[in-house]
Write a structure and sequence with these properties.
This protein is about 45% helix and about 15% strand. The protein has about 250 residues and is an alpha/beta fold. The strands form two sheets. Strands 1-2-3-4-6 form a five-stranded parallel beta sheet, covered by helices on one side. β2, α6 and β3 form a beta-alpha-beta unit. Keywords: Coiled coil.
């Protein structure tokens, strides 16, 4: 009996079931091949997109070489930066003025203190010296070589006992360090009732007092400021002193 005769004697259902199985297996193989091809093409697309991104970055860097600002001498560029750095604002965050009685049993209310500067833009925009130094290598080099950009400070703090000094003191030390021996122009606003315990305002005033010999202009707005007896205040460079009060007001140099 040859193969044709044997095939003719097979039941139709067995042949149909065998045919369906082959078709399903063939479909599975085709689907797997299609999926593999899709993955390969997706990998190719990702690779091409990465190459495209690198080319755009490279083109931008090459294009920056023709920027007109590269022709400006560093001295002129520093003068422009100095004009732009009118003041660097450091503000306590989160802002919190406590309401409590002071030693004279006089009630303090949060509305007794002016609101801090309303920050309507990202905080970096209120720190022009830091913003300039983060722009590019050349601008950073110029900004770090001109300490005057870092010497103009506006500080806004509270007397809240819940404020952690680290997040505020660290950038303040950075500015004081980068200002070198340049005379300082400082505006200090201390909001909140007098406290006898440690607060952020106490850390700030102690740190500023260490640099008092560099104070050229000092503007203070507060209800109370007390410097410890161990702090030496040197006003040898001071040209302008502006003391203003929040209600109520006490100013003491111990």
């Amino acid at each position: 009996m040859n193969f044709r005769d044997l095939y003719a004697k097979l039941p139709f259902k067995i042949w149909l079931r065998h045919s369906e199985t082959e078709i399903l297996l063939s479909c599975d193989r085709d689907l797997e091949d299609a999926e593999n091809e899709v993955m390969r093409l997706q990998s190719e697309i990702i690779y091409i997109q990465e190459q495209q991104k690198r080319l755009r970055d490279y083109r931008m860097k090459v294009h920056s070489l023709s920027s007109p600002t590269r022709e400006i001498p560093n001295e002129v560029l520093a003068s422009i930066f100095d004009y732009a750095c009118e003041q660097n604002l450091l503000q306590e965050f989160p802002w919190s003025v406590e309401v409590e009685d002071d030693d004279d049993e006089e009630l303090f209310h949060a509305e007794d203190y002016p609101l801090p500067t309303n920050l309507t833009s990202p905080i970096i925009s209120y720190l022009p010296a830091l913003s300039i130094s983060a722009t590019c290598f050349r601008w950073r080099s110029v900004s770090l070589s001109y300490p005057g950009l870092w010497s103009k400070l506006k500080l806004e703090v509270t007397t809240s006992k819940y404020s952690a000094p680290g997040p505020f003191i660290t950038p303040l030390k950075l500015f004081l360090s980068r200002s070198g021996q340049k005379p300082l122009d400082i505006e200090l606003n201390v909001h909140g009732p007098y406290r006898t315990d440690s607060s952020l305002s106490g850390h700030v005033t102690n740190l500023l007092a260490e640099h008092s010999k560099r104070w050229k202009a000092f503007k203070l707005m507060c209800t109370y400021l007390e410097l410890p007896e161990t702090t030496k205040i040197d006003f040898s460079m001071l040209e302008s002193l502006d003391l203003r009060e929040f209600k109520p007001y006490r100013l003491t140099f111990a």
